[in-house]
# Entry
Amino acid sequence: MRSLYECPVVFDSEHHTYDLNGQQLSGVTPIIAWLFPDTYKGIPQSVLDNAANYGKLIHSKCELYDSMGIIPDDDFKAVVADYKRVIE
# Structure
């Protein structure tokens, strides 16, 4: 199994895009929205924005573990520890 650290996919957090050898990839959210168009229907934009921000924080904490082996000593400690167990 390959870890995210070894993966050739490059994530640009500023633009929230994924790239593989010059080819732009789609994230999961547009695919879910296409497959299940009513998934986020009726959910306030503020709730969606908070969920997106939480996901970005988790992403960055897992990337920190991948690149430096650091498990944060904050609210994300358990999430990153679970991520560590999954990739091991």
